[in-house]
Amino acid sequence: MYKYFPHTEDDLQVMMERVGVKNLDELYAQIPESIRFRGDYQIPSALTEEGVRQMFATLGSQNKQLTCFAGYGVYDHTTPSVIPSLLQRSEFLTSYTPYQAEISQGTLHYIFEYQSMMAEMTGLDISNASMYDGTTAAAEAMMMAVAAGKKVNKVLVSGGLNPKTREVLDTYALHQGIELVTIPLKDGVTDLAALTSQLSTLDGVAGVMVQQPNVYGIVEDFTGFAEACHEKKALFIMSSVIADLAVLKTPGEWGADIAVGDGQSLGIPMQFGGPYVGYMCCTEKLIRKMPGRIVGMTKDNRDQRAFVLTLQAREQHIRRQKATSNICSNQSLMALWVTVYLSLMGKQGVKEAAQLSYAGAHYLCDELLKTGRFHLIYDQPFFNEFYVKYDGDVDALYQRFIDAGFLGGVKFDGGILFAVTEKRNKVEIDNLVKIAAL
Amino acid sequence: MNNRLYGKLIFELSKEGRVGYSLPGNFFGEYDIPASMRRAEDAKLPECDELTVVRHYTNLSNNNFGVDTGFYPLGSCTMKYNPKINEEMASLPQFQNLHPEQPADTTEGARTLVSKLERSLCELTGLAHFTFKPYAGAHGELTGLMTIDNYHRSRGDMARKKVIVPDSAHGTNPASAAVCGLEIIEVKSLADGTVDYDDLKRIVEEQGSEIAAMMMTNPNTLGLFETRIPEIAALIHDCGGLMYYDGANLNPMLGVCRPGDMGFDVMHINLHKTFSTPHGGGGPGAGPVGVREGLQEFFPVVSPYNGNFGVMMRAYAYILSLGSEYVKEVGPLATLNANYIKESLKDVYELPIEGLCCHEFVFDGLKDKSTGVTTMDVAKRLLDYGYHAPTIYFPLLFHESLMIEPTENESKETLDEFIAVMRQIAEEAKTNPDEVKSAPHNTPIGRVDDVLAAKHPIVTYQQMLNDQD
């Protein structure tokens, strides 16, 4: 007997008799013998629960635990202990997509709250029930813009987009036949003059995508961008770090039609790349072009408030190849994660955390500049992440950080991008600076 | 139990000034965010204390039904038990705190886990390499099709833009092909539910030079094994196409048959089905894609890092727990359970295709059609008796599809009780049809008004407030 299989010998006999087979092998009598798998899989033997624990403990000990000053799209924020505890409620954890509304109100209810919160954070009208992550949400926004326009196949993408996002966009664009054109940066920010000229010379532009803060951590000024886009009937798409939108001017205020990004900055552990959750919000008039699931409010036959998956005619299980997207499973449980996070942090907490991250990053930046070994590559306003050049051996510095227990930013193009969140205290920052000053 | 206070929307439990967090003071000096950067108004988020938040979401969870609550025979979804040890392993801080940009020599444990999981999946499927970038099943389908498209492009074979799918296929198959820029050709099913080989042959003869791939599940969506799979694979390979295996129905094949041995070149696995990771109310799952030797160089970049690494940790814990001894029992026991239910109910529910099924099977509604009780009614009545409904109205081959998949974890007692309830509902359909047609009666809410929701979409709290004004 095995703990996950309840079948006793007696059970097997009675059941096989009902089915009309003499042994379990006969259940597969129809499969040609030439393709049957006989013998044993070459995988390890079964481990006891303690054996599994030991295996993971060994693997875990081979990972180095570092105090994180890295960002680049993934941030080490504080996680309130309430969240993992509530997410282990097995009624949430072990349920399927809420197709049976009568016994899925828990999931449908929190998705409605999630959608409401995402719309508030981005300043847009509506939200879907979640996407996989920020990069795929950006890819879906790109395809949505092309599908919403007429005879369009180009999307202009700011050079300020994280290259990781751009790489995923390139993948989808290749197969979709979408042409991506880069909008150059000037002094580290998207060049509006270049964009305007691209919009006037290129035909068939479906959308324009920018990132806030951009890959260098710079908070860009998008004055005039939405107008330039809309004049050419292109949709304005903003990818943002959602935690920063607690205080930053929102995509809605900048005139964006679609807002996308990753929800990871709302207290989701970094866990080596996932699971996170992508968000996508848009204006009300684009709702029927939206990919993915959407939860709506309605009534039941007892006149009670109820929630249900709605506008399903957009989706793959109804429209098949004509659907707005192929997405089916999304990241529902991670949407619950950010919903509980935003419920706990609330109106004040998200602002306080953002302010602390901002202050910590600016303090670290000032202290690094004081050592005389660093300088900012762009003289632009930044939020909780900044890009500096080191006047010594960057690789050696980076290794010194690691040896001292720090993940000292992310290195790329000869510079280092440091990030600070509310989780980092002054002692940690001062210690990092000491190592940097050596 | 649903508490009238805590079951409201979280926004309706908010009171100005309450907080549910603790943050440090600012020890960094005067670094204020400049006004020019700021949003004009705060986001209207709730303001709640910690216990209110805990009670609210605990109450919501009580309105949900999970595998831990009761039997969940949802066809094609493989709602198997999600072992608790997997959760414990996935929550280890030594993995949770890893930034994906950390240098390789500081993440050796995590990387070893990924490569060990890859080796296990290769062995279980008969393929040579896996990419873990895809986040879900449909994302895996897309990744697999992009891999195939990249392969044909690399050979300058630019005309191969058509994908053959059976008419019984899941909706994500054609949708994924469309996102990949490929065109769909549907191949018909025979009366016995399997692919019409002659129709396939005709398609290949007419359009062979344009075929990029054929996408199949095996067993198919009716739970039937496609016995002509070696011939089908040969036909597709001979015309220059590749075979894609949709891993949605891999569970009954564990211990029985490997996709690589069936002739498939590319596949995805739903770790949240076959490898026991929780469905989470609709994700996160994971859809790793495996390929034959030589195709790995065509993997596309569909996500930045290691996919849903937390989900992969759970799947690895499951494989370690089962080991080579028990993993091979998964398929046969799942298949026995499905056939046991089928044989116990086929006298009262319409079984359109006789014979052995694999992990799941489809009834075409009640046998007695005179009562007017539909598959929808049966499904809703099951909720009253404490069961999750089977998958309904899919596949599209029948009008009243009722698709049942029990998984290997369910005991004979559970199945017997379910069978008894299904028979009772069939009886009620004759004696008290109105009771069935108006079901459910014992759930937190009754049947919902879908039309109202779609005609007048209210998808945020703010829209709800505006609507009330």
Quick take:
Chain A has 438 residues and is an alpha/beta fold.
Element layout with pairings:
The complex is a heterodimer of chains A (438) and B (469).
Chain A: H1 9-19, H2 49-61, E1 67-68, H3 82-87, H4 90-93, H5 105-122, E2 126-127, H6 134-148, E3 154-158, H7 163-176, E4 179-183, E5 185-186, E6 189-190, H8 192-201, E7 205-212, H9 225-231, E8 235-240, H10 251-254, E9 258-262, E10 278-282, E11 295-299, E12 305-309, H11 316-319, H12 332-370, E13 374-376, E14 385-390, H13 394-403, E15 406-407, E16 410-412, E17 415-419, H14 426-437
Parallel strand pairs in A: 1-15, 3-4, 3-7, 7-8, 8-9
Antiparallel strand pairs in A: 2-10, 5-6, 9-10, 11-12, 13-14, 14-17, 16-17
Helix pairs in contact in A: 5-12, 6-7, 12-14
Chain B: H1 50-61, H2 84-90, H3 93-96, H4 108-125, E1 129-131, H5 137-154, E2 162-166, H6 172-179, E3 183-187, H7 197-207, E4 211-216, H8 229-238, E5 242-246, H9 259-262, E6 266-268, H10 271-274, E7 289-291, H11 309-345, E8 361-364, H12 375-384, E9 391-392, E10 401-404, H13 412-431, H14 433-437, H15 450-455, H16 461-468
Parallel strand pairs in B: 2-3, 2-4, 4-5, 5-6
Antiparallel strand pairs in B: 1-7, 6-7, 8-10, 9-10
Explained architecture:
Chain A is of the alpha/beta class. Chain A folds into 3 domains: 9-49, no CATH class; 67-78 and 346-437, Aspartate Aminotransferase, domain 1 (Alpha-Beta Complex); 82-340, Aspartate Aminotransferase, domain 2 (3-Layer(aba) Sandwich). Chain A is 38% helix and 16% strand. Chain A has helices spanning 9-19, 49-61, 82-87, 90-93, 105-122, 134-148, 163-176, 192-201, 225-231, 251-254, 316-319, 332-370, 394-403, 426-437; strands at residues 67-68, 126-127, 154-158, 179-183, 185-186, 189-190, 205-212, 235-240, 258-262, 278-282, 295-299, 305-309, 374-376, 385-390, 406-407, 410-412, 415-419. In chain A, the strands form 5 sheets. Chain A has a 7-stranded mixed sheet, sandwiched between helices. Chain A is globular and about 80 Å long. The two termini of chain B are 32 Å apart. Chain B has a 7-stranded mixed sheet with strand order 1-7-6-5-4-2-3, with helices on both faces. Chain B has a 3-stranded antiparallel sheet with strand order 8-10-9, with helices on one face. In chain B, α9 links the parallel β5 (242-246) and β6. Chain B is an alpha/beta fold and 469 residues long. Chain B folds into 3 domains: 10-61, no CATH class; 84-323, Aspartate Aminotransferase, domain 2 (3-Layer(aba) Sandwich), CATH 3.40.640.10; 330-451, Aspartate Aminotransferase, domain 1, CATH 3.90.1150.10. Chain B contains 16 helices and 10 strands. The mean pLDDT of chain B is 96. In chain B, α2 (84-90) packs antiparallel against α11 (309-345). At the A-B interface, α1, α2, α3, α4 and α5 of A face α1, α2, α3, α4 and α5 of B.
